[in-house]
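[Q] Does anyone have a clean structure-token version of this?
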Amino acid sequence: MKGYAGKLLRVNLTDGKISKEEISESMKKDFLGGRGFAVKLLWDEVKRVDPLSEKNKIILATGPLSGQMLPSSGKMVIASKSPLTGGYGDGNIGTLASVHLRKAGYDVVVVEGRSEKPCLLVIEDDQVRIVEASELWGKNTFDVQDHLEKTYGRNSGILLTGPAGENLIPISTVMSQRGRAGGRPGMGAVMGSKHLKGVVIKGTGSIPNADDGQLKALGKKGYEEIKGKESYDFWMRQGTMQAFEWCNENGCLPTYNFREGVFEFSKEMDGYVLEQFHVDRKGCPMCNMQCGHVIKDSEDQRAELDYENVGMLGPNIGLRDLRQVALLNRMADEWGLDTISLGSGIGFLMEASERGLIKEKIGWGDFVAAQKLIREIGMGEGTGSLVSRGVKAASEALGKDSYRWAMHVKGLEISAYNCHGCPGMALSFGTSPIGASHKDAWIIAWEIATDRFSYSKEKVEKLVEFQRIRGGFFESATVCRLPWVEVSFGLHWYPEYLEAITGIHRTWEDLYQIGDRIYTLIRAFWKREIPQFGRTWDFPPDRWFEEPHSQGKVKGVTVDRKKYEEMLSYYYQLRGWDENGIPLKQTLDRLELKEVAKEITGSF
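[A] Here you go.
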């Protein structure tokens, strides 16, 4: 099949063995790339292992759209068995590493084993080597990025773990290009467990497409359509930060550890304030609608912001100064800490302090304390150590009903949307295949614009549709969803792109089938790795069911537990899973996953 390098690069850090393997035609056809390749490899090769042991593997996976001259195609998926959740974990990252990997002649890299000393994996076309990097161990991601750019060239693709990953902190992520991050469920810690400080990729080849002329023409038209969209200019001014004001107005801004949905100081730090402080814009390769907005933080250093990190490190911890939020965000990026999980952890500690459950006095909006906590979380020391393994583990350690306001699903902290009055988005968080991530089905805007408080079957059907598109197709193609989500770039483009790349015509129904296969295999992975996994893992925190907001549009509203149960049952029905959320044998057969049935049901 055209459009793929067709090569998997396998690197064993224990014995130094490096090999190159063919990717089968059936793998390309059935799993497309990116997330699809990642879960298939993890299913086949990572079985009931400790996520931080050398038996775990980290997957760097691209798709057929990655690195092409197409809108927002500079993406890569980083996946592994998660040290934070114990299940399947992944994240996508916009990085030059994606483009260079494709040009170097590989679709996927599988890193296994554990190096005795800190090391780098350096990929330069056919030349692949493991380089000792003891002198880089302990350094922050910005300093190492600078060093590696000087050594290998500014245009090199670079992926890094920070000091938090080195310290095996399960909320550590993988960093690139001073602010690009991916792999929320602890992918940075998996790199750290392997003594893999970073990956450097330089490729000089080309991608063998079916029709380069047609692809070039389609790409040019796509870029032009995006720039001509009505909402494009406003997007370029504020990016994802346009969601800040919208969330506050609609009562879904995470405030004081998701206790409230409205922040009284929102006007001091929304997208319009961002515009006043704006000094630069950053984006992924191949993107003409960059989402990273750079301001000078409270130490006059450059920091890249988007809605998620502002929401979680701002109102969620009661902090009202955007430049101070930017400093916390920069610290997180330097340490290699996920900003969503970090903001949730700090908010958890502030609430625990308010309730007298910890001896330390940490007030809402305490900027000095927040900086100290980031360092402690990154080191796994002091008060911060309580949340360094995530808020689920923190609540289990703290006890006293703190699980009711530990804001996570499946162990992954909830991203920046408060769902007291959004049952569809609550279900989206509940059924996300990696834990409480918004990336798989950001249904909240559609929900608020239609029938916000309903628990209808239509809403569940829309959720599955969004998961098929966002988490199934975009995460496997692998390409950014934001052109479609934010400026209404037409979905019809993507099958056209795929046909020009691969030479194979696919409809959206064909792509939905691939997405269903991927979601079902991820579900099976969770069940195999965690035998007790099932329905109870698909519920958001008790706070959304039991503690209504005291102000705003959804004052007094909570999610109805019984109606949520009914939505969840219907979701399982649509997915072809049983009432415990486990894939049925006939579903596995239909999706050509017959070999999976024995491992999760005991039958063929």
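[Q] Thanks! Anything notable?
[A] The chain has 25 helices and 17 strands.
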